[in-house]
Amino acid sequence: MIYGLGRGALRAVHELGEISLFGLSSLLGFGRQRHRAAKLITAIHEIGVRCVPIVATVGLFTGLVMGLQLYYTLVKFGAESALGTAVALSLIRELGPVLTALMVVGQAGSAMASELGIQRNDEQVDALQTMGIDPRGYLVGPRLVAALICFPMLTAVFDLIGIFGGYLTGSVLLNVDAGVYWNRVFESVSWADVQGGFVKALVFGLLTISICAYRGFNTHRKASFPGVRGVSESATRAVVWSSVSVLAADYLITSFLL
Amino acid sequence: MEAILSIQGLKKHFGDNKVLDGVDLEVSKAAVTTIIGKSGIGKSVLLKCIAGLMAPDAGRIALNGQPISWERASDGGTHCFSYMFQNNALFDSLTAFDNIALPLRETTRMKAKEVQERVESILEKVELEDAAGRYPGELSGGMQKRVALARALVTKPDLVLFDEPTTGLDPERKFSVFEMIADYRERFGFSALLVSHDIPEVFEVSDHVAWLDEGRIKFFGEPDQLNAEAETALAGFLNKANYGRKK
Questions:
Q1: What HEC string does A120-158 produce?
Q2: A6, exposed or middle or buried, with CB in 10 Å at 0-12, 13-18, 19+?
């Protein structure tokens, strides 16, 4: 059992190293690409624009639920006026970056892993290589840079809509004074909180997109099955490992930030 | 004839399976060299080693006298040859025009107008002017092959590697693909290394034939010499491939 545990740990560390090198070489490869702006715009559309509706929807419902839950908790202590503080800080520090990352993984990450897996099986990745085009720089690099741009912005959208959701349940539904709610939001949120949330968003973006792209790109090496089943396995593992890594990284970053 | 591609002592194994065990081969300039052999004998592995898609364990590959560095090739650094894949490997999300223009846009400093002129010219040569704006999924198998061939030739490579270009095609289409290769070889003047199972049809377009068996090239010569070849194993292989009956 100890042998198996050690072997698993070594494999995980080895894989983490491979993913880091893969991400780095993709970013460097993107720097050597031609027509970078066009590729980046396409990637921003895929990772950013197309994820806005789902991020906004989840942000709204998260805010609505938090408004309800926190109101009924705070009212027990006669502290319902602190609702704005509780909703805003929870969202900006924790839930915003984490849930945004999970939503983007579900929407764009799985699609990316599948697309790259199909391109690998279809020899399109090999075709790029034989044409003299660095496949990592061409296919993965733009998506990584787009992730660095889009994750903080999507997190900001999630936070803002979530705080508005908290206002809807807290003030509109449960009669917490709107002025008090917004005043508490502005008073309690410091630049350090926002910065911390953005740091998390950047790390999650790099981590999740690297894992999803790595899984798809290496379908031929990493999946247990060839063909369609291999692609489906890669997409599933990409989503599972990205989600786990978001939660693990969140714990690590929070312990450093607090 | 002067050699464009020279392979010496190429070895590649997968575990205990020695797929290539010291391959020596020379591909002449402006000639079509065809590699024949049983399925799973290592023909595609040989092609992939040449293209830099697979790292050989030992040996030397030189293109135009310059050794090919596998590390450089795997980063997309070598492009004086083109590779036409068995299944065409066209990008589904790009039109026929964009598929053909891709290597020019990404690896050269050509202006958009020059790219357009070059692509339009090659589309005309492969008789696909009307299909320029269509996606691969909207094209027939034969048209897709021609798009793949156009993409392989648009950079004016010195050498084109064809990996079983007629797989999955009916006899009529197979013949037209071979005819297309022969015709375009005349027009574009490229050298070609072809892997094919289509015996004896492929001999019609081949200047040289190389027989890969047990990890080595055991016969190399002109197709006509095959008739005189008394080597038992090759004769057996050709008989199994219906060579005697079809020729």
A1: HHCCHHHHHHHCCCCHHHHHHHHHHHHHHHHHHHHHHHH
A2: exposed
If you count residue pairs, one on A and one on B, with CB atoms under 8 Å apart, how many are there?
66
Q: Does B14 touch chain A (CB under 8 A)?
A: no
- Which chain B residue is nearest to residue A122, measuring alpha carbons? B89
Q: Which class for B206: exposed (0-12), middle (13-18), buried (19 or more C-beta within 10 A)?
A: buried
Interface mutation vs chain A, best among B106, B107, B164, most A CBs within 10 Å: B106
Task: Tell me if A133 and B52 make a contact (CB, 8 A cut-off).
Answer: no
Number of domains in chain A: 1
Write out pLDDT tens, residues B82-115. Answer: 899 988 999 999 999 999 999 999 988 889 999 9
B12: which strand partners?
Answer: B20
CA B81 from centre of chain? 10
Residue of B nearest to A33 (CA): B106
Structure tokens at B25: 């081969």
Lowest model confidence (mean pLDDT) among A34-38, A209-213, B118-122, B201-205: B201-205
Q: Which of residues 185-214 of B touch A (CB under 8 A)?
A: none
ipTM of the predicted structure? Answer: 0.84
In angstroms, the CA B131 to CA B143 distance is 9
B55 and B107 together in one domain = no
Statement to judge: residues B59 and B88 lie in one domain? no
Tell me the CATH number at B97. 3.40.50.300
B193 in the same domain as B142: yes
Instruction: Look at chain B and report how many structural domains it folds into.
Output: 2
Does position B247 have pLDDT exceeding 50, yes or no? no
Q: What 3-state DSSP class applies to B192?
A: strand
Residue B51 amino acid letter: A
Using CB atoms, pick whichever of B53, B105, B161 lies closest to residue A34.
B105
Domain that holds residue B35: 1-41+50-71+210-222
CA distances from A6 to A19, A20, A240, A248 (A): 20, 21, 22, 19
**Whether B30 and B104 share a structural domain:** no
Same domain for B135 and B109, yes or no, is yes
Rounded to the nearest 10 degrees, how much is the dihedral formed by the CA atoms of B165, B90, B192, B75? -130
Q: Is there a contact between A133 and B102 if contact means CB atoms under 8 Å apart?
A: yes
